[in-house]
Amino acid sequence: MRLILIGPPGAGKGVQANLLNKRFNIPHISTGDMLREEVKNKTELGKTAKEFMDRGELVPDDIIMMMIEKKLKEKDTKEGFILDGFPRTILQAEKLDWMLKNLTMMLDKVINLEVSKKTVIRRLSTRRVCKNCQSIYNIITMKPMKENICDKCSGILYQRDDDKEEVIKDRLEVYKKQTAPLIEYYKRKNLVSDVNANLEAEETFSEIIKLLE
Ligand code: AMP
After folding, report:
1. SS3 sequence, 70-123?
2. Rounded to two decimals, what is the model's pTM?
3. Is residue 75 scored above 90 in pLDDT?
4. How confident is the model over 13-32, as pLDDT tens digits?
């Protein structure tokens, strides 16, 4: 199964990708997680990316494509993958098409997570992420068992710099201008299924499962 999860920040792409990964054991590829790992390790790539990420802007396409190409050539992504947060521009989508063609792979579905602006702002400003394993929590709807501690690895939970309200607004604008046109792009290829992502994570997940069955 080769899936793309598309939707604005806060639509629940990461949460749904994790649930799909648990259910079907398909590798979850999140360019955001990969970039945050580079930032944490203070690599050159991480330092460059951080400047864009902190402003809520997109990291340049060539950096992203380099990371993705490496990932798609790894053994465990041969049978399938869930792309979360990638592609984010038409150029990235075109390059992905070209890469998949060369690897004789085809996309199965693009799941479009539809969510209101109100839900996004509420979700993101209460989201917390594990510093260590990147698991996602919410201080209102998906609390960890111990306050600020990850249930899975006991890592510390933190609020992403780009989840602060002033950056969220910019990220939504970037989504509207640069990423939303991808829905049309994939609609023309008959790959898009819309899902209501205003619901609780488990309910949205059931909708996705129905589509995949
Ligand atoms: P995410 O965790 O998917 O919300 O991504 C966090 C940030 O990482 C984004 O706001 C961008 O700055 C950067 N980023 C992640 N994926 C991409 C991508 N495919 N293209 C460009 N920038 C990206």
Report:
1. HHHCCHHHCCCEEEECCCCCHHHHHHHHHHHHHCCCCCCEEEEEECCHHHHHHH
2. 0.92
3. no
4. 999 999 999 999 999 999 99
Taking the C-alpha atoms of residue 50 and residue 176, their distance in angstroms, rounded to an integer, is 21
- φ, ψ (nearest 5 deg) of residue 126: -115, 10
With a 6 Å cutoff on the Cβ, whether 86 touches ligand 1 is: yes
Task: Burial-class residue 59 by CB neighbours within 10 Å (0-12, 13-18, 19+).
Answer: buried
Going edge to edge, which strands form the sheet with 157-158?
136-138, 127-130, 157-158
Taking the CA of residue 85 as reference, the ligand 1 atom at the shortest distance is 3
Closest CA to 10 of 116, 124, 122: 124
32 CA from centroid of ligand 1 (Å): 5
Q: How many whole angstroms separate alpha carbon 150 and alpha carbon 142? A: 11
- Residue 171 is a catalytic residue: yes
Q: Provide the 3-class DSSP secondary structure of residue 2.
A: strand
* Residue 91: band (very low, low, confident or very high) from pLDDT cuts 50, 70, 90: very high
